[in-house]
Every structure is written in C-alpha cells, then in structure tokens.
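Lab notebook: predicted structure, single chain.

Context: the supervisor wants predicted structures on file for every construct in the current expression panel, including those that have not yet been purified. This is the next one on the list. No modifications to the sequence; it matches the entry in the shared construct table.
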Amino acid sequence: MYGKVFFVSGIDTGIGKTMATGLMARSLAAVGRDVITVKLVQTGNDGFSDDIDAHRAICGGVRFPEDDDGLTAPQIFKFPSSPLLAAALEGRTVDVEAISRAVRECAVRHEIVLVESAGGLDVPLTGDLLSIDLAAREGWPLVLVSCGRLGSINHTLLSLEAAKAREMSVAGVVWNWCADADPKIEADSLETIRCYLSRWGFSPAVVRVPRFDIGGPYPEVDFSEIFK
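Prediction complete. Output recorded below exactly as produced.
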C-alpha cells in the first residue's frame, strides 16, 4: 500500500509554511490519520532540520524512526538560501533522486506524507529543475500557503497559474493570519482567489489559520476540507 503525498508550498519565504505543515499534521493525527512530514530540502542548518523539529513540536514532540534515518530531511545544506546556491557553496548538487526515494519510502510506511517545500514553487533545486517541477513530476497535489497581506493576491494567483500550467492537482489553500493585512484587501484577495480556484478547476478548499504564538499553545484547525 502506498500513502498519499501532498506538496506544501507557499507564495513566498516566511509565509508560514512550516507552521501550516505542522498544524495540518497535528489536525490529521488528531482524527486518527497516520501522517508524517518531510522537508524537501533544508537550508540554513547543519546536520538537522529546524523545520522538521518545528513540525514535531507542534505535534507534541514525538519523533519518528524516519527522522533518525534521514528520510524526513534527505538534503541539508548550511547556507540559508535557495537549495541550488546552498549546495553549490558546499561543492555539491541537490540529489533529487535521494529526495524522491525518501518520500516514496515514507509513503510506503505512512498513510499521508506532507512534503514542505524550500521557499516558493519556483525555487531552483538544480540548474534545470524547480521545486514545482519535481512535485509535478512525482504527481504530488499542491497545498498552497498564502495570506491576505498587500501583494499576496498576485503571488497567490501566479503560484496557482504555475500549477495549472503543469497540470498539477491543487488540494487547497491554507490562509494564514497576517498581522499587517488590511481587512478590505484581505477580503477582496480571498474572494478573488476563491474565484480563480473555481475557474481553473481546482479544489475550492480554503482553510483559515487564526493568530497564534510560535511555541504554542497551538490552535485546533480543521483541515478536513483539504484532506477529503
């Protein structure tokens, strides 16, 4: 049996992918789903993944054997940048096949695998492969993390359009709380994004995440609309 893999990406760096991924894993585990998270490529760390540690903390601190086996963070680089640059600075290249193998092995062992991207969809992994290209090649449905701040509507629609161009499935949008979002802009952005989700034949699922403090307590968010 092979589990379902979802690709969690965002419209920009710092949009809240890590928190959203952790909250989705927490929500799924709470209703009895067997879920694990994977970091596509971790940069800015040496020998460990901050993002995987954050996922585990949100889910109660329990670690998986796959963490110790290196399957949940198959590529780690020290410099905090795109995977392409971070790898080059170490005289290495991103081992895309190692990533694919790790995700497949996690999917053999678990019902649901949430793969958190490194940055946005068009972040380069190699000289000729973007993150979205790998996700499209592997057939991973996209969960896009966005919010209602000024400028996000453009980045969100561009991301969805990139998925459409590659004939990717979009499972839904996670709408993060944003401190500097103007209520009128946020409402308009959300309405427009819902319109284009429908127009482009994507899932209409949009799940809103309320304000919470990093470090907890963590909100109980129902993501069942995305993971039907």
